[in-house]
DNA sequence: ATGAAAGCGCTAACAT
DNA sequence: ATGTTAGCGCTTTCAT
């Protein structure tokens, strides 16, 4: 009976609109009108009484009830692969900022980059009847063909789906190819001729684009990508890949391009652990410009991605009727980890 | 009319339990029983038909409707100061993991360490009638007297409030004093005799405890905390405080204790920028052991706080009838940033 | 074991 | 301008 009891307790102690109306001596409708957004006019005397009653009782509208009565709920669902990863943390902060501005609630779920899990979550999320869904989850499968059905289900439910990369009703695009190309070109200009790439993940759009872009840029500048190592997205994966790479042999003057800063940071550790030096001996560059890239020594050369702003844009994309992503080139940020050759 | 239209559209396209029941040729009650957790027995033949109908229609229960009918909603509200800060990101990941295990939804809100904002959010959150509220928001005011009313409102509403630090129905405790004391003692044992502290924030419980603990430990080992610098919780605040400290003069062999790793990392940058050396010249230690502490060079000596696990505990605390925080001492992790003296 | 029906808290026609 | 009332989608007594 705990449940029933608890329910009764919760209910009995929470004033309803009905209570407020009665206390104010007005009808339910009037109370609703003054308390919740309606445009309808209510005489000041009534308005006051209702407001006072609501205040005294400590009334707060039950969102669930409103949602079902209105047929729409004030929630935005956000799916991220890993909220502890700064990449997603920054995106989430942008989303949260936007939602706050509009008085919407953000619901968050972690996919762990597992498509199956992602679909499960998406399915469960449907029950919330959110106004929008933001998928920043699938660095491991964007462009993949797993969740279109689940996503479509949302659209037909009236919720806008926004994805980082392709797939949803709207997409927030990150010019991975362009940014990486510029980085490659810049690195070639700084004298690097040999590069190896870390963190490649076949079929992951982001990964493929960054790799292709970098190769194009680096080669156009006379450089050569000699090897590519697959690996995950975590710091440890970067260290692991780098260790393997070192075992394979890495000449001084080689440039290591890690497909994300987090991976780059892991690689730097591995380089150091192997008794080599980051910078003058082995150069390293990453992608994203998450805060940690400025904390390492030497600081990491990377491509700045305005993650928080993109999160904000993703939010706007879910709620605004008209929306277009502001164009902005990804900027290369050269720091100490790529001192240049000669 | 957009609203009305949209609503109609959303509604008409989403199958309700009613639709399922009709399609399966059973009553609403039966459909409800098979689809949603009820213990009641339903004949297999009926069960099958209902399940099939639900499947074909792509039915998903409307959580809002269930919430209002049941009088309880499956949501846990999480308040954090800044989701992009690894400290909170890790806590959030633990909370999310727990919620996922129990099929609960996590709602997230950002307080920006602003008590006023926090209260506003808390108030709005009430409308969700969450089962629990986790407050990991107030590093800037735990122990303060701002939100007790809002928190109390939740309790009387049937939601359990869990805070990091004191204040809620239950609290997840971090032994800041003990950990810092051990750190101080250890540092003294490594030969440090002079320390300055960065990131102190008067009235912030966490800050006060860490400062007091460290002082006690360090002094008991023969050391002396000579100066304390106030400052915020961000990397930049650490850099700033450290710059001021350097201007005041910092002798070689001094130990800098930053009240959090993030601040410590900022301090390290400032030290370097000033042409000094972290480690042999000026030693640095922090608190929390967030990932970045292992990425910097030299790696940062700190006190390990199992943030993600604590987030998980906080979740358990909100939902479990019986709960007790597992005791575990905070462990000092000595790394390169405090090589020791002599 | 199944179904009818009375809510849950709120909104929005539709009267008045 | 205010009130009446019929839902919204679902759960749960209470009959059968």
UniProtKB/TrEMBL annotation, chains A, B:
Pfam families: LacI (PF00356), Peripla_BP_3 (PF13377)
Position of the signal peptide: none
Residue ranges of every copy of the HTH lacI-type domain listed in the record: 15-70
UniProt entry tagged with the keyword Ribonucleoprotein: no
Coiled coil stretches, renumbered: none
Transcription listed as a keyword: yes
GO MF: DNA-binding transcription factor activity; transcription cis-regulatory region binding
InterPro entries assigned: HTH_LacI, LacI/GalR-like_sensor, Lambda_DNA-bd_dom_sf, Peripla_BP_I
Keyword annotations of the record: DNA-binding, Transcription, Transcription regulation
UniProt cross-references to PANTHER family, sorted A to Z: HTH-TYPE TRANSCRIPTIONAL REGULATOR GALS (PTHR30146:SF109), LACI-RELATED TRANSCRIPTIONAL REPRESSOR (PTHR30146)
Protein name from the UniProt record: LacI family transcriptional regulator
Species this chain originates from: Microbacterium bovistercoris
Taxon lineage: Bacteria, Bacillati, Actinomycetota, Actinomycetes, Micrococcales
